[in-house]
Amino acid sequence: MSSMSTVLRAAAFAADKHRTQKRKGKMERPYVGHCIEVARIIAEIGEVDDADILAAALLHDTIEDQEIKPEEIRKEFGSATEGMVLEVTDDRSLDRQERRRLQVVNAPHKSPGAKLIKLADKISNVREIGVDPPTHWDRERRLGYYAWGTEVVNALGAVNPQMEELFRTTVETARRQT
């Protein structure tokens, strides 16, 4: 099976699994747009064409948000993709503060592919919060997210210079918009 086919199958899988999910802002953008943006940032800005990384980027929230079993991802997309998705999946049984703390603590220990996904995810989230924040988030909470996201990205270490620069400029822009 071709790399392009793998990425397109992952996009279709993500679109199906996230079909009823919306972003939390006023625009209620379909959630799968976030998944596509994460993969696009990695491909375009990061200049990465590894099908396993791009598939994992598209699928990065399926276990966490849609309760998809890891075995389903492994069966459909292989163990490398499954592994990266698991690396970026938060344990929803923990409270929000503990999940946030663990993202910072665990960031330096992720595989290179998972680090790319985590960085692109933070870029996408900061961008979204800057232009269309969740309706119940006040200015302080948005600024707190930018600060915490920066902690996570800094903890990742060197990942991809172009994507790291995009993160910095995205945070600056979001802070001005907030």
Descriptive keywords:
single chain, mainly alpha, 10 helices, globular
Overview of the structural elements:
By secondary structure, this protein is mostly helical. The chain has a single domain (3-177), classed as Hypothetical protein af1432 (Orthogonal Bundle). Helices cover 71% and strands 0% of the residues. The chain contains ten helices and no strands. The chain has helices spanning 3-17, 32-45, 51-59, 62-66, 70-77, 79-87, 96-106, 112-131, 139-156, 161-177. Helix 5 (70-77) packs antiparallel against helix 6 (79-87), helix 8 runs antiparallel to helix 9 (139-156) and helix 9 (139-156) runs antiparallel to helix 10 (161-177). The mean pLDDT is 97.
Order of helices and strands: HHHHHHHHHH
Poorly predicted ranges:
none
Structural class: mainly alpha
CATH topology: Hypothetical protein af1432
CATH class, anyone? Mainly Alpha
Spatial separation of the terminal alpha carbons:
45 Å
